[in-house]
Amino acid sequence: MLNRTSRRGRSLITTIALAATAGLALSACASNNGGGEEDSEFPTKDLRLIVPWQAGGSGDLSARTIAPLLEDELGVNVVVENRPGANGSVGYNWLKEQEPDGYNMSMVGAEVATLQFMDYDISPDDYEFLSQIISGPGAIAVRSDSPYETLQDLIDDAKERPGEVTYSSPGVGSVWDNPAQGLQELADIELTNVPFDGSAPSIAAAAAGDVDFSIDAVGSQKAQVDGGEMRYLAVLTEERLEELPDVPTAAEEGVDLQNASFTGIVVPAGTPEDVVTVLSEAIQAAAQDPAYTDVIESSNLIPLGTSAEEFDAFIQEEEERHGRWIELAQSTE
Architecture of domain 137-253 in CATH? Predict the structure, then answer.
């Protein structure tokens, strides 16, 4: 189902094709210019950076923060354009249909690895991954007057009342619904999902006590926690977060569950390797600039700037992990 063979096969074919293309280009260059440099190098015109979500979210913020820094790195304009709709698939579909020349890029989130499992014609095979620029670690949170003092309390109650403990999510199969499947599997419990259209109403429902708990990004829940409406039970990270030293990890509570939202930048599959390298290196440099990191950190997110290879490997892991969680959810329907 995960089609790993297809992805590796595509990479091999692309590598062979690039090698052949490079050989022809070098021959032509030597014949026409006596071995001199080409007349121009990428990029020579404006770039477009698609945001497949509504304006105002963290993905939109990161795009508009990093775009001017990319302009400094690349020497051309970077135009940010929102193309929201259908879980991001409107923007994702638009990008994969563009010429793979590097002049059209898109922000991506976890949906790029999960939409294929929900009958969308979109998969990681459609893109070349340039850099992951944000990570948003997750947490399990409850309303302030919840009887659950620890994650273990929640698990114990769920064991006593199978299917009666409820959680809110930003939608079935979303990046924050999927780890709830992992929690059920690891703790051997049965929970009931109450899906909403996005994180804001999902978290609001938990804060109001309409559901028993919420799984979402630490930063997304922070306003309710700071306002005294909610409190964290556990973070879904390998180690405790520096800004939340008193909140244990889920692993410390006996459930080795980790999950984070993410944002990165991609181009269409088949984009030449040298163009991918130029863009990836520019993004990595821009993502280290304090003008970027300060804004992202102030939004309770973790700024990153991974290499293309690191981002591609990360996406493969996300595809396999979320695919298994979605299959678990579908098997219980």
Answer: 3-Layer(aba) Sandwich (3.40)
